[in-house]
Amino acid sequence: MTLLHRHRINWPTLLIGIAAAVIVCIVLDFYIDERTSMIDDRNSKSQAVTDAASVLQRADDLRKLTSQMRKTVETDASSAEGQLLHIVHDWEQRAGAGEGSFQRVGSHGEQGFTQLTFDITADGDMSAVAALIYQIETASIPLRVENIQIGSKSEGDDLQLHLEISTLYRNDAGPVAQLARGPG
Fold first, then answer.
1. Do residues 78 and 162 both lie within one domain?
2. Domain for residue 183, yes or no?
3. 103 shares a domain with 52
4. pLDDT digits (tens, 9 = 90+) for 25-80
5. Nearest-CA neighbor of 114 among 165, 66, 174?
6. Residue 184 forms part of a structural domain
7. Residue 182 covered by a domain
8. In which order are the strands placed within the sheet that holds 159-170?
9. For residue 118, which of 95, 148, 93 has the smallest C-alpha distance?
10. 67 and 100: one domain?
11. Which of 85, 81, 84, 96 minimizes the C-alpha distance to 161?
12. Is the same domain home to 61 and 115?
């Protein structure tokens, strides 16, 4: 008999233990859910700060780029055309190309810049044409090759190069010029 009394289950204690375990599970589940929610919120805010810092860095890089561009980009059409005419003539002489022609065919303004388009033709052998194209592609001023045609001029090695290139000049009233000057 004494053996049975020792193993007798104390129901109130057992029920209290089960209730405590259920309460702990509910509280622990709530805590884990809240903690996960707070971690996700922290991560999203951290990503937003990183994105904002990236945007600010890109704006600063753009400001530096436009301030550097101010040194090479002319402020009026005649200066830009003169600069391009001078540099293309110099390239033609260095490359050994001859009979060059240079003609402005259009202009288009946007975002504080005006794009001037020119037709350029030159004659020369393969090395002269290649050297001229290389000079244009590695120019220190902003140039864009819009169209290029290379054709045979005669039976020999002479080639005729026809280029349509464009350059830019800036308008000081545009938004890019305001960005280059900085805030305030």
1. yes
2. no
3. no
4. 888 888 999 999 999 999 999 999 999 999 999 999 888 877 776 666 666 667 77
5. 174
6. no
7. no
8. 98-110, 113-124, 159-170, 143-152
9. 148
10. no
11. 96
12. no
DSSP 64-88: HHHHHHHHHSBSSHHHHHHHHHHHH
**Cα–Cα distance between 171 and 178 in angstroms, integer?**
10
> Predicted confidence band at 145 (pLDDT cuts at 50, 70, 90)?
confident
pTM: 0.51
The number of beta carbons lying within 10 Å of the beta carbon of residue 102 is 16
Phi, psi of 107 (to 5 degrees): -150, 150
Query: Is the Cα dihedral 11, 17, 23, 26 positive or negative?
Result: negative
What number of residues does the chain have?
A: 184
For the cut 60, the answer to whether the pLDDT of residue 180 exceeds it is no
Domain count, the chain: 2
